[in-house]
Write a structure and sequence with these properties.
Layout (H helix, E strand, L loop, with lengths): L13 H13 L5 E5 L2 H10 L4 E5 L2 H14 L24
Length: 97
Amino acid sequence: MRNSDPWALTGEGHSTILFDKYVQNRADGSRVFSVDINEQAVATCRKLVSGLVHVHAGDSVPYLDQLSRQIIQSNGTINLLYLDSYDVDYEYWFPSA
């Protein structure tokens, strides 16, 4: 979440807020996991979401690897996986793919 202004819905990270509102209304144990490499964006996001959202600061590739292993070990499932990479270098995009 790089812009906490609620009216700036074109900013990055607002999908996390929308997913948070969705799982709050489901009341079925749903959770949201979010990862961002930018520590400031993570801090901003944590202030704006409920405890149902687990916000991690770090590189998404190792985080997703670790998260998938945890889900497999616990026989869990993922019902929705939303991947979004804003920090893309269009000259050298391969690491973001």
